[in-house]
Amino acid sequence: MTSEHGSLLIVDDEVIAVRNLAHVMRKEGYRVTTAESGVRASDLLARQSFDVVMTDLRMDGVDGMELLRRCRERHPESEVILVTGFATLESAVEAMREGAFYYIAKPYRLEDARKVVREAVQKVWLKRENRHLKEQLQGLRTKGPIIARDPGMLKLLEVARQVAPTGCNVLITGESGVGKELFARELHRHSGRPEGPFVAVNCGVFTEELLAGELFGHEKGAFTGAVSARAGLMEAARGGTLFLDEVTEMSLSMQVKLLRAIQEREILRVGGTQAIPVDARFIAATNRDLADAVAVGRFRKDLYFRLNVITLNVPPLKERRGDIELLANHFLKRGAERMERPARRISPEAMALLREYDFPGNIRELENVLERAVALCETEEIDATHLPDELRVGVIRAFRRRPGGSPTLEELEADYIRWVLGETGGNQTLAASILGIDRVSLWRKLKRLRLVAGEEGGNG
Hints:
five-stranded parallel sheet; Rossmann fold; Helicase, Ruva Protein, domain 3; 48% helix
């Protein structure tokens, strides 16, 4: 928690008291808003939330107790501090019963006010962090298992579940979009600490300085703007799993720091001198060839061996085409639920296109294709017209990559139609959809090219 991110609403009908306290709190780094009446404060709370509301108890119109109730109703995560010059045991008890964070009697020392506000903001941030971690855990519990029936994928899942309880470091490799983070979550789900946090960080989106701050945290005064200490992700992952995505994008100097954390099981915050224990399982992922990166000096060999205790190589979608139908129907259902649209089905023609496409973007691209189809489809069935043009182009490119000589245009057309018919099991409706023509036009081409049964003659 950093106090420069803390917001504070100060409410008091004594103008000078409000200004003095606001001045002190702004110097502490808080974002301060003031209100000189309970009515004004209530209007502000109707439009926005504050981490902490520090309000006088006795005010005309809307008093501090009423403001406390309204704040608790509208912003349950906020904390309210009541201040009064007429402190009584009864009012203090009522304030605590209504959910006040603290009850301060006037006159008070500024140092006491600083301390109470600081503790209140810390409590707000801890509540938010706990909520976030619970949401992550709930998301982890509700995510279904990895969808697959491809024998290679099923074998890979079996290996993942075997090594998950061991707690050893795992390296996950594969192209972008194949689902490396899903495998990391699967390892966490079957580990000995599934109730612990799963913390993911993409090493490629931060500069070296920012990544150091994210992973290791920093102490107060470590750099300009660091007005308080902040825990890093390695501390946040205590008792759980830290997933380092695109680890090859990490600089060599950061690799040294990561290696030390893995070896020594402790870290130093940026600007700190006291070692902090690390209790997290490390899972790393990359879409690059890590052995090649080591060979050319872009990745440390010692870190490679530390991370590469077990390697899981997730295959691209084009190597597991048997899973495309399963995944497509899964994404179709999920997309319809997310957009609150009726359930759709995929036509045989559309499914044939999906099966033949190479999906360079892998599962992520397939999900996007189905989400687009759900958004565009106004009928009960998703057909080829609801799929991107790139799919048909991709199928044609796959045909062009086949070995062959230098045929004439007519021979090329005949060969292509034969190939499409072969891929669709002779289904002319599916073939026509892939070719981008109607069934009658396909029949005419078959007749012209003498591909109709009994008319192929010497071309057969």
